[in-house]
Each structure stands twice: as C-alpha cells, then as structure tokens.
Design a protein that fits this description.
- Four copies of one chain form a homotetramer.
- With about 425 residues, the first copy, chain A, is of the alpha/beta class.
- Chain A folds into three domains: about 1-75, Alpha-Beta Plaits, CATH 3.30.70.2690; about 80-165, Beta Barrel (conserved putative lor/sdh protein from methanococcus maripaludis s2 fold); about 190-415, 3-Layer(aba) Sandwich (Rossmann fold).
- Helices cover about 40% and strands about 20% of the residues of chain A.
- Chain A has 14 helices and 18 strands.
- The first copy, chain A, has helices spanning about 20-30, 60-70, 185-205, 215-220, 220-230, 240-255, 260-265, 270-285, 285-290, 300-305, 330-345, 355-360, 375-385, 395-424, and strands at about 5-10, 30-40, 50-55, 75, 85, 105-110, 110-115, 125-130, 135-140, 150-155, 160, 175, 210, 235-240, 310-315, 345-350, 370-375, 390-395.
- In chain A, the strands form four sheets. The first copy, chain A, has a six-stranded parallel beta sheet, sandwiched between helices.
- The radius of gyration of chain A is 29 Å and the shape is elongated.
- The interface of A and C includes residues 317, 318, 330, 333 and 375 of A.
- Strand 18 of chain A pairs antiparallel with strand 12 (about 175) of chain D, so a sheet runs across the interface.
C-alpha cells in the first residue's frame, strides 16, 4: 500500500471507544495500520496516546480513512495551518469546504490552535483573522449565513476535533452515547447481500434454519418460502401451530375445494376454514400423512415433508386445535428447538417474536442471524440478544421473502447458465 | 337474482351499527336487499325491527351473505331446529360444523330456543339432548375437547346470535367496539389495486398528487418514483427541502463526479455532500437552472422539471440550507400546498407525516388517498383525518414504490401490446 | 326535557353509519330523541329519510347535540338563511363563526341553497352576495386569509353538510372511512375511570382478572400490583413463568439475602439470580411451599398465595427453568385460562401480548376489558378481537399500575373516612 | 483500595470494544485499575495483550467487577482449576453455580483447558471427568436437565470466555454486534435522577431549555409544566404554533368562559375553539398583550410571559392560524432556536420529533439531553444524533411531566424545610 500518512490520537481513547472506531474505520474502508507508539493510561484518570501510520492502495481511499479518523479526533503528525478559501458568493461554499461535527473543535491559524465558537453540526468553519479584539477568531456559520468573502476552512488539515470522552465514574441516568451508525441503507441491496450469504452457506455444506411466524403466510409470502424449501435452501424450520395451520389452510382450500385463495383471505369469512383444516389434519393422522394421502398438495409444510426438512411446531396458549404435529409441552418443544439451533450456521427470523426469542436463547454467539419484522422494537430486541454477526431489517415480510427468494434463485439460474457455458 | 331468503333482525340495530354492517355485507358480497318492514324505535330505549329479503345470483353467494347477516344477529324468517351431526371421531368435527362467535347465542332445539353455555369464539356448538336435569343443554367445546358421538351443530339455521348493543347513555371510559375489520391482506394484491386506480385516474384525465418524504430516496425508491414521473403518472409533487436535496445529491454525486451511489449512502461519509449539493444548486440559481445547465441529469427532481410537474418544496425548521426553491414561509407554503390539494383526484402519501398532515388538512373528504409508512401510528393518524375512501399500508417505502411502479408501468406495456395487436 | 328542535336527515344514512352516529351523539350528550318519521330505502340504491325531534334539559346541551347532528348532515326542519356577520378585522372572525368540515357543504342564501367552493376543514365560510357573474358565491377561507368586512357565516342554521356516503358495491382496496373519533384524552382521568369501574365491580361482588407480563415487574410496578392483590381487588391472575420468576427474584434477593433491589435490576448482573431463583423454588417444592417456608416474603406471587388468588402460570418456549408451578402443556394451560376467563367480569391486560391474546380468545364479548401496553399495535390488536366494552391505553405500565392502585386504594380510604363519619 | 486482583485479556481487544467495556465496567462499579502491561497489536491482524491490577474498596465490589471482566474474556493471572460441586437434586444447582454466556468457553480441569460443548446462554456448566472416550468432557445443561450428582462449575475461576471478535475487513451486510446493554430500568427512579440533574443545573446557575409538543397539553401535562416554569426551572421554551394554541385554548375556555376543561377536551367538539382562540389572540395583538389584558390567565404560555422565559414558536405547514407570535419563516425560526440551543446546559425534549430534531441539529455534543416520547423510534432517532450524555425514555408524556414536576418541586420543599431548620 503505497499511500500512507501518520496520525496521532490522544485522550481517554480506549474507554471512550475512540480507538475501536479508528481501527474499525481503517479496516472497513480497506486500509491497514501500523501502530508506531501506544502509551496506555495506566489508571482511570490517565490519558492514552497513539501514533500510527495508516496506509491504503490509493489516495482516494486514504483520504476517506483520514476523514473518519479526523472525525474521531485524530490529527496529522505534522499539522499545518488550516487552509482558508474565500466564499465565492453569498450562501455558496468553496469546493472541499470543511463541514463541522458537533464536537468541540480547534483550528490552527498562524501556528496557534484557537477554539471554534458556536460549535454546531454540518456548518462551514469561518476564520476571521482580525476579530473584535484584534485577535483571530474562528466560528461556525450555517450555509445560508455564509457571505461572499468569508474565509472558509477547507480540507481537514489544521483542524482538530475533540469528541466527548466517557465521564469518569458512573454516569447516573445519563448514558454515554457513541453515535452508533444507524442503518439507512437501500433495502434491496441488503436483501441481495443476505441472499449471497445464504448461497455461500449452502455451497459450503452449511445448515440454514428458518424461524417463521404466521404473518409470512398472511402477507402472501408463503409461496416464495415454499420455493426456497423446494430448492434446498432450508434445512430446518421452527414455527408454531398457527403458521402451519394457515399454510395448510391455503393448500386445502386453494386447490382441493376449488376456492379462490384471495377470497379465503377475506377476514369476514371468519375462522371456520381454520378450524376445519385442523380437523382434517387430525382425521388424516398428521401433516405427513395428509401429504401422502394427497390432501395437502402445496405450500411450505408440503415442501418440508417432501424435502425432509427438520420441522418443529411448538405449541402456545394462543393456539387453535392444535395440529397433531404440534409439540404442546414447552420444555419438550424447547429441547427440539435447541437441537435445531445448535446445528444451524445461519438463522433467518421471519416476523415472529416468540419463536425468534426461543431460538435466540439457544444460539451460540457465533451463529449468523437475520431478523426481519415490521416492528422496529422486535428487530432491536432480537439483535440485542446475542449474535455477533447479525442483520436487522424493519420491513414488510410480504415483500422481503419474495425478493429474497428471487435473488437466491436467480443465482441458481446464473450458476446453471455459467455451468452450461463451461460445459459447452 | 334468483336465489333469495328472508331474514329478521331486531334490537338497537341502528345505533349499535348492526344495520350498517348488514346492508354493507350484502353490497360488499354482490347481493341485493329488499326491505319488507322496518320499524324504527322512536326513542332511545325502544328497539327496532327489520325484515328484509336478500337476493344473490347464485346459492354460494347467498350463503356467504347469510353467514355475514347471521354473525350480526339476523335469523331466517322461519327458523327450523338446529341441525345436529355426531362427531365422527375424537377432535374431529363434521363438515359444515357451526363455528361460534364470542357473542351470546341461542340454539333452537325441539322447537325451543335455549341459551348456549360457556360462550367462546371459534368453538364447536354441542347439544346434549338429555342434560343433567333431564332438560336439553347446549354449550361450546374447543376442537381438542370434542369427543366421538358429540352432537355438533352444523349450518346456521336454528342458531341465533345476539351481538352486544351499544350501552344506553354515555359509556364512560369504555368505548363501544364494533369489531372493525382489520387489514391482513396480501400486500402485493393491494399494491396492484392501487396501481389500477392510478391508471384509471389518469385515463379519465384526472390529477395525481404525490407527497413524499426523504425516506423515499434513502430507501432507494427514488428511481422508481422518477420513472412514474417520466411516464406521466404524477401531476404534482409536494415535498420538503430534505427530499429534494437527497434526490439531487444522488444525481450530482452519482454521475457528475463519478462516485458510487452505494458508497455515497454510507452514513460514515457525513453530511458534506448534502451541504455541497445545496451550495451547488444555489450557485446555479435553482433546480430548474441546474437541470438546464446539465448539472442535474437524473432523479425525481430532474424528471419533475422535464415533465412540468407542479412542485412545492415546503421549508421546515429541520432543514439544511435551504435550497433556493424551498418556500421557507409556512403560510406561503401552505397556500401553495392548498392549491395542489384542491386540484388532486388521488393523493399518494409516501413516508412523510409532516407533509401528509399538511396536505390532509386541505383535502375535501371526497378525494381518494393512499397512505404508506413503516410506522403504523403514522398510517392510522393519516387515515383518521378525513378521506372517505382511503387505503393505508404499513410497509417499507423502499419496496412499495418500486412494486407500484412495476405494476403501473407493466400496464402501459400491456396496453401497448394490446394496441399493437389491434392495429395489426 | 323542555328544549327541543326537529331535524331532518336523508341519504344512505343507515349503511353509511350516519344514523348510528346521530343516535349515538344524542345519547352520549345526554339528550333524547323521538323519531317522527323514518322511511327506509327498501333496496341498496334507495335513499332513506328520517325526521326526529331532539330534546335536552337545557339549551346548551341541545346546541351541542344539534352541532353533532349538523356535522353528520342533519338540517333543521325549517331552515332559515345563513346568518352572516362582517369580519371585524383582518384575520379575526366574529364570535360564533361557523367552522367548516371537509365534507361537501351548501349554504342557504336568499332562499336558495348554493354550493360552497374550495371545501376544506376548519375554515371560515364566506358568502360574497355579488360574485364575479353577479350571482352570490360561497367559499372557504383559512383564518389568515380573512379580510375585514368579509361576510362570515355564523351558527349552523342555513348550512347543510353532506358527509360522504358508502360507495355502492364493493369498494376495492379503498376502505370506507367513517372518521372514527381518536382518543386524545387526558391519561390520568381515564385511569381514574378504570379505577372507579374496578371498585364498582368488586362492590357488586364481581370477579376481576389480571393478565400480566414481566414488564410489570421490570418497570417497578410490582409493588403496586401486590397492593391491589392484598386489598382484595384481584380474583385471578394469568401470567407466565417469566412474570412469576422476576417477581420472586425481587422477593428473594430484595429481603432474604440483603441485596439492594435497585442494584438487582442492573442488567450487567446477568441472569444468574434469575436461574438461581428458579432453582430455589424447585428445591422448596413450589411457590406456595416457598411462601410457607418463609423463603418468599413479599411481592405479587406472595400476595396471591396469601389471598387465595386463582393463579395460572402458563409455560412458553422462551422460558428459563421453568418453575414447578408453571403449566408447560399448552392445551392444559389453555383450559385453565379458559376457566378463569369465563368467571371474570372485568379483565385487565397489562403489558403482555401473548397471554392477553390467549385470554381474549376465550372471552365472551360481554366481558369488560382494559388493555394497557406501550406498543400501540398491541393495544389495537387486543381491542380488535372482541370485547364490546373496552378501554385501550398506550402508556408505560410502570406508571399505569401505580397510578391505578393509588386511585383504587384512596377510594378505600375515602370510604373508611365516610363510614367513620357516619358512625360518629 | 485494599482488595485487588490481577487479570489478563488478549485478542483483538481494542477494535472489538473489549478494553472499552472492561475499563468502563471497572469505573461504573466504583473500582480502579492499574495497567501493568499493554502490548498493542501493531497492525490489523496482530492481537493485543493487557495485564492489569483491579482494585476495589471491598471484596463484594471487587467480585462484581471481576464478574464483568470475566464476561468480557478476562482471566485471572494465575488460573486455578474450575471449582466443581455436585448438584444436590434434579433441577437444583449449587449456590454460586456458574451461569454461561453464549460465547465460546473453555474450562480448566486437571491443569488443561478444555472446550465447553453445546454453548448456550444461562445454562449450568457440567464437567464429566470421564467422558465417552475416557477423556474429561465439559458441556452446558439447562436447568431442567440438571441431574442429581452432576458436577456443576461454580465461581468463575478456571473458566475462560472468548467473546466474538470483530471480523477483519468489511463485514458486508452483517453488522458487528457488541451486546449493548438495554435499558430496562424502573421508570420512576430514572425520572428522579433527571429531576436531581435539573435541580443541580439550576443551583449552578445553568440554563434549562424545554422543547415541547402539543401532546404535552393533550395529555393533561400542561399544568405540571406551567408549575415548573413558575418555579423558575425553565429558561427557554421552544415549541410550535400548535403547542401554544392548545395551551391558550385551555386557558381561554377553562376560565374566561366558565367551561369545563374536561368537556373542552372532548374531540367531538371539533376545532372551533382552536380557531377562535387564535382569532382572539390576533385581536389582542399577541400572547403577551393577551396576558396583560387579562384574557389569558393560566397555563404554560401565561407563565412564560410572567417569568420572562425566552420563547420561540416556530411555524410549520400543518399550522392553523397561525398565532401572531409564531415565526413562520423557517430560516428565521431556525436562527432563533439556534440561539436558545447554544445557551442551554440541559435540554428536555418532550413529545415532539420535529422541534427536537431542529434543536438537536444546533446542539454541541457536550450539552445534556433528555428525550421523552411514547414512540421508541422517536427516542432512538433523537439519541442517535448527538449528545454525549443523554437519557431516553419511552413513556407517556402525560405521566412523565407531572411526575418530574413533583420530584423537582418536592426538592424545593425539602430545601425550604432544611433551611427553616437551620434558621431555627
């Protein structure tokens, strides 16, 4: 890596998370670091100091890394004065203007570090060489206050940011915030990454576990999940009596009795089909028997039977019926779920809090998890409890599963085409 | 309509909403009614009585209608005894078993109406002709309690449901619930219906107004919205400074400066591009000028300029900048929005509470509205305030808009193909 | 009732819910009605007509009722012309100005009904006697557009509102909205009403069922619930293994082992106390035995044992342990809950979706229910499924239960004081 | 600090956040540390090593600290073998049993470190000295699987936890989770801490800024906020036209016109009082004039005028009216808010997303903030953007403000009593 610079960081940089963010930024952006000196404060009041050389393959990447380090309080080893450019017009900033953080900031002017006044996020940084008392002053201005000729700071050299440090001692009610990165990412590209991960796990002979709530069926996503099962992308399914009943109901009434699936969803129709579905499965002796007898001919449960998916239906006090396949004892069900969880390499948690928590309780922290729910609180709760590598998406399950299936299965087609090409 | 039956309904059937639900059910299911007698209780304690003949084109539809009326307390004019069938096995109910509501219920046995004990929803209704005191008894049983030989009620004749009536006088803290139909419908089919409505409005020369929040752009749905604008499906756009800036930022940095749009979304990059975008538009003199100068070459705002869409960008105290096109005075902005709202035949409210409320405040109750947001509270709040015909969807805007655009625009293709066929 | 007026209402007034709202308004506001004529449209296209005399004890109440009826489209039998008053200043409306709805509206001027233009909610209604074409015109103006001298409509006479009617036939994706009254009421007064209801139920010898989730304990509301149990306000408790374990853990570690309850809540401490609590209760042979042995000396479970409260702890696949008292089989637990539910006269559902749904499934629609949760979706889901008389509150359970207990128990004190006074 | 132990930690302990959590735990729990050796991995693949001596005033605190360090992978410098105790009964664990994390774990038995199988959270750790192949084995067991005589690990010595480390390079869709501590703390004690903070700020001559939404008034919390203003605990108020109008409406209709405040809240009454309130304030010439004329005699705005609170009412496109005091231009309003924000030492954000974001945009990261909203997403969004010391509470504003006022003002009473005592 031919492009490199040396930066310095000091303060309570370990316990305030500064070093973690700095090292993380270098690695996330594809650079590397070489720590030249690291003096760790030996007790809670002592500050630490780090000097490291940061490298990247190209100057653009290096600049992106340095930007991140700068935001976290790093300064270049040999700071120069700030670079000032006059604003070309009212409300117009020069290219490469410096955009402020909301942290206390200093600017190096004429060899001296001076404090920036009225600190505020996303502003321009103006230096007035000849302030009211004849001394240079620095302050922020929002874009619409910038006037032609204002001396606007550009780049990041000569500017030092001081992110807040963790208060010494216990903080009382006030938590120490580290500005966690929130996840406003394009939904579709995230689903694409999950699809790629699923394919990788299967190609490596791994095990995929799906935990699914009844909303998967209500929202019309059942067919897409059945497709994934049929294509071999699901090794185990953990769900409840409700999920299975709704899925079977679609199969029974969608094809056997000639009813319109759309009408069947109509809530005015009440729960009669639901109860009757359970009654029919009891009469047949269970789901597998019902598949063999040709009573059930499509859907997620059908594909699970056909493809020997390890399926656990756990009972709950909300259940109608239940189906004969449902494990009504909570301890017995938990043990079955535990076995599934310990075998899994990746777990998809689809629109069910109850079952996802039950599975999450048994998972080692090394298993990858994907949590999808329309309710942000559910996603947060699931991400909080455990996996070290997790994706959370707040979205409609009725669009997530079909999109995921599309991306996973078009990968199969691409692979088939590629293989055909190689064989040709 | 050759299939018909006569039913009777009595009680506080107007102020408890019973008649509204009964008339609604007949119409929703495609039947018709002919009121033969209607005695309205002349004061608040007097009950009302309705006898009407209900007709449908086929027996299936008629039965579906009668089922709904039954759930609301209607009985056939000439009730017969309840039809009882012995349960064929433990936990198995006969076909056409009667599934209970949670309302007080009577059953007609041997010419007498007897009360059903232990009323509970979704149960079987059992009649024991020879109860403990030698009298017939009726009670509910959940499916897993049904025993072989139990006499299970089937169909709905001989069964009378008594839905709760509105308490006389003010109800205190306790609201009177009418069992509103909740909306567990397959998402995709609802989007398809909205797409059809959009196409109809445009074909009839109508006006489509879009109200959009910045999440439309963050979630990657900007391209799909731009496609709808380009295809002529948007007559006016009501948004804020943030929406326009994010959209313009994608155009400026996605193509002009050769940056990867994906990277640009990365929150670590901070707000510098955002501020710089505003600065560049100010320098150009506004969005239209920036389009004409070739600075902005794609996106929603670009298509709005190119297609003469009536656009209002309303300012807010959260804004950065703002853009020169943003109307910063709230009263002035409100007046502009008011003009858009009064011209609209259908309004799409996409992931913005602030702007949607502002638009909703000005809308006549006759304008159709579609509200989409990931937050159920936002959707509820918007539906509550006004339109008589509204669709609410709790879903991810990043999948809603692309799916809507696909359905609307594939309609265009279908039409083109059909036209080509006709011309051929 | 000495004050009365006669109004007329016409249109699809039954199936659009108009009559229901009108009758409801009269009763809610304490008036009475006497229907003089009611012609019911005999089929779905025919309109209905109602003429009724509305009475109230005083003119203020009558006016409030007439206002509500007016909003729903009623007009006085003998309409007069609209009363117009000139605006005294720019942006200032006369007292008693008419504030518009968002429904199509007509105004009677010079004996003729004319349409109001630019209909919008919460505006002033202006009549220009001499419009552009020499004819009188009527239109809305927002407050800040009112000019001195504008002729502003006052009162409601001479104004006719036409609320939207339910579309004939099925409405497609677009639901028919009736402008449901949303519940922005002062929280504290609602809690006070619930407290009064609880006291009434108990005074009448009724049965109070409490369904409680673990958040009741986490949020610090356990003591208040224990107080209610001790004072005899709880007849049955339906909860889960988690609720009981958290409650017992507070008792075990708060008093037996001398630990600070506050520290115990600290999440860093992990789940060890939790597991150990279960282990200790197993060792004792169950909760009742642990109370008798003096291991458990306070809390909700302690008071339930001491006061013979019928308690059901239902198991779930999320449970740790479980406690020996927990019913792990879902069907068995459901049957036990069913018995509790059928005995209850009022049910408090406190911060638990799972258990509340299970209880709600078994409840007759005549049982009063109170649902409290921080999540609006939970409250909505519970209110949707069944009770005819229900209160829903979206609030923090940690403040709801203590406030409720305070109001209920201060009622006891008031009663004791009153009784002491009588005896003196 | 007389009690101390030496621990070792190794791995990617800086960039995985391990050291940050370890230093933090020591300080949070009131201990101190002395780093004896710290070798920092000089590049991204090199591991780091830390040896430090941890001290505390008493053994209990030291053990609590060591527990936290252990959970994060620290081991005592001179590890001994694990301490094993036989389970006294089925499902009963020995006191001080070791409760597992979900991270990969090793146990030291007979001088050797062996891997623990079937890792899962909150389990007992069992060592079988004589496994299937004659070698010792270690594995987890859930409580209900523990059998009498099982050798159960106790304490933490001889057990090594290996928390997951941050993956090298960019993690793709999968974020690296650090198991953030979620905040299930008793609500009331948090409010008490905020009250104490408010009192401290005022005693130190600091500045308190309140940002308030209309829900403060709707929920009945207006009186409590007015009390805080009257007692001098509010220096500046940032709100909108809606907040002020609702507050003034209560004053105007609650006292001037003799109406019942409760009735006034009744949503059926519509918006007429709302509009009329605005009209009356316009007629008076503004809020201050209305207070002086005796038109407004109570409420938050009244107290703000009487106590010279710096008040900014920012306009929005949703506003009715607006009031003459409302700053309708967004840029002008932003500038006024900016001045308030820069003067504040602590900011209370009460049930308003729009105004809170506007204020948050201008705040330096060193200002303390308290965010209260019923919507968790709002609280999360506000905490994410900036302050280094922040409290977030998801709760009902209608109970938060009165409880806060009670705690703050009872402090005044306590102080008065104390002072009276001193003077006596």
């Amino acid at each position: 890596m031919s492009h490199s610079r040396t930066v310095e960081i000091e303060g309570h940089i370990i316990d305030s998370g500064t070093m973690q963010r700095c090292f993380g930024a270098v690695m996330d952006l594809g650079g590397s670091f070489d720590v030249e000196q690291f003096d760790v404060g030996t007790h809670e009041e002592a500050e630490s100091y780090c000097r490291m050389r940061v490298s990247a393959d190209d100057e653009g990447t290096l600049q992106a890394i340095l930007h991140e380090l700068h935001q976290n309080g790093a300064v270049l080893e040999d700071p120069s004065d700030v670079a000032l450019v006059a604003a070309p017009d009212d409300k117009v900033v020069p290219p490469d203007f410096y955009s402020t953080t909301n942290h206390p900031t200093e600017v190096r002017y004429d060899g001296e570090w001076i404090d920036v006044e009225r600190i505020e996020m996303d502003c321009a940084l103006i230096v007035d060489p000849d302030g009211p008392d004849g001394e240079p002053r620095a302050y922020t201005k929002v874009l619409n206050a910038v006037e032609e000729g204002d001396l606007v700071a550009t780049d990041e050299s000569g500017i030092r940011v001081n992110p807040p440090e963790r208060p010494r001692g216990s903080g009382g009610a006030f938590g120490f915030m580290q500005g966690g990165v929130s996840s406003e990412r394009p939904s579709e590209s995230t689903i694409r990454e999950v699809a790629a991960e699923l394919r990788e796990v299967k190609e490596a002979g791994g095990n995929v576990m799906v935990v699914a709530g009844p909303a998967v069926i209500h929202s019309g996503a059942g067919d897409a999940l059945a497709d994934l099962v049929e294509a071999g992308y699901v090794d185990s399914l953990s769900a409840g009596n409700g999920f299975a009943t709704h899925d079977l109901e679609r199969s029974l009434y969608g094809t056997s009795l000639g009813m319109d699936v759309e009408t069947l969803e109509h809530p005015r129709k009440g729960h009669k089909h639901h109860i009757w579905t359970i009654s029919e499965i009891i009469r047949a002796g269970g789901i597998e028997a019902a598949v063999e007898e040709g009573i059930v001919t499509e859907g997620v449960m059908y594909q699970c039977v056909r493809n020997d998916v390890d399926t656990v239906l756990a009972g709950s006090i909300r259940d109608d019926g239940p189906l004969p396949d449902t494990v009504t004892d909570a301890v017995e069900a938990q043990d079955a779920i535990r076995d599934q969880a310990h075998d899994a390499d990746i777990v998809l948690m689809l629109a069910t809090l109850l079952h996802s928590v039950a599975v999450g309780n048994c998972l080692p922290s090394t298993t990858k998890t994907v949590c999808v729910d329309i309710n942000p609180a559910t996603v947060t709760q699931l991400l909080d409890r455990g996996s070290a590598q997790a994706v959370g998406m707040v979205t409609d399950i009725g669009t997530f599963v079909p999109t995921l299936a599309e991306f996973v299965l078009e990968g199969d087609e691409d692979a088939a085409i590629a293989e055909a090409g190689e064989n040709a």
